[in-house]
Predict the 3D structure of the following.
Amino acid sequence: MRVSSVLLASLAVTFFACAKDRFPPEDEATTTTTGTTVTTDATTTTNGGGVLENTDELCSDGIDNDGNGLIDCCDTTCNDVKGGNVLTPCVADNMPEDTVERCSDCISNDGNKYTDCADFSCSGKNAPPEAKAYCDMIAENDNEKCSDGKDNDGNGFTDCKDFSCCKNNPSVTICDPC
Ligand SMILES: [Ca+2]
Ligand SMILES: [Ca+2]
Ligand SMILES: [Ca+2]
Ligand SMILES: [Ca+2]
């Protein structure tokens, strides 16, 4: 009984495999327009440059809408402090900045001009352990993180261009002093 079931299943698989060869599924035929994807749903439009990330909604959805590697308030289109263009989701609420979430949102939540791990309230010796551990983890201050091509701590300076790599840091041997 079991053998015949297996045999039947095997025959069925063979049949469908052959049928698929002869008649490609409809959905396969309709998804061959890669590169010129056109969709009527604005939220899923992916036309190369993506959607400009510059509205309250797009600056608080946790998505890198314009595909430039910067999400929400970490993108200057949402949070341009120098240019004076800070959208509502990125405005400081002047409350303590000492949780992992608030130490990684690119906002100086407490309004003291120091943002995220640059603020001792996140990374100082008296910071809450979770926040300090997070900041220690992303700190750009060893040979590996100072040569990976990434701005690990998100301060706008990458690898040897970051003071934490090039200035008075004996544990970094690959950067010229700056
Ligand atoms: Ca976004
Ligand atoms: Ca923050
Ligand atoms: Ca780096
Ligand atoms: Ca950096």
The pocket of calcium ion (ligand 1) is lined by residues 53, 58-59, 61, 63, 65, 71-72 (CB under 6 Å). The chain has a mean pLDDT of 81. The chain is about 25% helix and 0% strand.
